[in-house]
Amino acid sequence: MADLSIKLDTTAVSRKLAAFRRQIPFVVAGAINDLAFQAMRAENAAMSDIFAHPRPFTQRAAQVEKRATKADLTAVVSLRDAQAKYLTPYETGGPHETPGKALLVPADVRLDQYGQLPKGAVKRLAARPDVFFGTVRGITGFWLRPPTLDTKGRPKGGRRGAMNSRLHQNTGLTLLLRVGQNKPVTKQLNFRRRAIDLVERKGADAIRGAMQKALATARP
Q1: CA–CA separation, 145 vs 57, rounded Å?
Q2: SS3 at position 97
């Protein structure tokens, strides 16, 4: 029986493999960025589960601060600076972050649709001539003075109210905002844990998807 010799030309395959090898950093960067944006969306979506009626501002707290590139295979997902000021305690623990020197607790003031003080509410109260900040019978806060009466005995402005209806103490003043004691947060953001869990669950799928995309767009 004569010897059979078959030569297999692997030049084209080798060339494609070499080209794909050069694509690997792009593939990995693509997978990392895919996971980063998934993590960002998951973090923002979780705000509605953690907080009751969060503002849209809070629901846009997470961002992809840095994308991965072939030269630097690192992506960064973080809280935007403005939101991080008040959300960080929910991740690391500690007292609530207050915008001023004291924690102001609503007593008799209209809140917005999210159950919070409207923006600029404290400045507007401080500017009103019928409102003052002080301590009345041991309670410090913003107080509304009783109305002054016109010549016919009708109120010209302000309103009359009870300081503390439970104690039946009527001062003629209405407590609008009181200074409260800042307390530790009771909710947990789980920002890091949520991102880690997502990468563990979806990391392999992200790499697989990036490889398929690279193969589909590779030049012959």
Answers
A1: 34
A2: coil
